[in-house]
Amino acid sequence: MSNRSMSRRRFVELAAGAGAISALSALVGCAPKTIDEMEANQKASKTIDCDVLVIGAGAAGITAAEQAREAGAKVILIEKMGWIAGSSSLAIGTLYGAGTQLQKAQGIEDTPEALLQYFLSRGGDKLDYDMQKFCADHFGETIDWLNVELGVPFKKKVSKKSVDTIPRGHNIDANANVAVTAMAKKANEVGVEFHYQTAAESFVVENGAVVGVLARRSPEKLYQYKSKKVIVAAGGFARNDDMIAQYMPDYEGVYTEVGVGCTGETIQMGFDIGAGYIGHGGTNGILNCPVAAGQSKLISANAMWINTQGERFANEGGQTHDIYYQVAHFDDRKFYAVYDQAMVDALKDTLKEQYDAGIEKGLFAKADTVQEAAAKLGIDGAKAAESLDKYNKMAAAGKDTEFNKKAEQLKPLTTPPYSVLTMTVTTHGTFGGYNVDTQFRVLDESGKPIENLYAAGENCSGTFIYDDYPGGGCGLCFAFTSGRWAGKNAAEAAKA
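The structure corresponding to this sequence follows.
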């Protein structure tokens, strides 16, 4: 393990998550790679039949199950955790799309064609053109569907994300879990069966076609789910250190906050039967303050941000996904927020508690000068002081000539003492896994569909995202959109 990873792991203890992962490993770690129906019949203590089996109860899986059931299929969804899981339930709740009713209500002129050109400019030109076009064509439709058909509340303002010049970020009024919960409610209403604490272990394969799944409910209970079609929507592999090292080595050791179930064994199940991998070493992530989960508001755009060398390195008010990629490639995966006392005095309630905890743990430092405070954390203090002096001069002039920070965020930091707050990054997903076509059929290593096998969500997002994130909300919208179409397509094929 690198020194970079160890420095981050000192910040946060994950005992609960580690325990959950260990328990899961006991269920799935010794599974056979392939199994045919005769052997499955011998091994399984119970057989359960359905038209469509969905693996994974996140945004993609629940959507796929609901849509398959709406199309007339008998649907069972299995989830290895005991609850609605997946990284989607932890997301802020932005979806990316074009040509929506919310855009039109704001007078924003936009089209799927224009969105396609943006996707292609952000790495999509290195991927399958048809998938890029599919996402551009259907993302806006998915947002309208969630808003109008399922009643998911969205904020009226559509926001700009990343370097995109058109507002396309549609923000759920609260967080993504609102949409996931609404989808689960609808799935239950239409008759989807949810089987929790059921860990997929192996695909059952006959003559090259997937005909079911062996899944374990306990060390003693191994069930065979016979299904005409199977949809894998079990998330990525951000919590699988070996897979990160193999497929995304640039992010080895980066702390992750994804759901504890995102350990990648269902992706490996597909590889065991010949599924092709697609991915380009990218991850999704956010900025993180080590005294709080998620994106703490201590990560303030009103502060000045510096690296370990004491240098300012970015527009503090810029897109967090783009800054994440910068920091994730720093040797130590750290950056630092410089506060003056006026900013500290303005902190209230939870934020003040987080600040005090950071001081107590030695993650934050305070001194009469920024040079002294920075030096306490191993930062080049002289360079930090130089950076602050330059920053304050730009703030006084009202113009950031280095990184074009907005004037309203460019506030002088002139009230001593000064605090320097340690910050870092955390992954929120992996862009790699199954290769799929636009029907969301899983393709083998030669590019041919594996009969009866579909995928949706993060475990096939490498088809849509190259190595960085086009804009906040793309991953979540891909989850819901791929789930919609994988569910419909699988159900229609099951009835044929």
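The chain has two domains: 3-89+178-276+435-495, 285-426.
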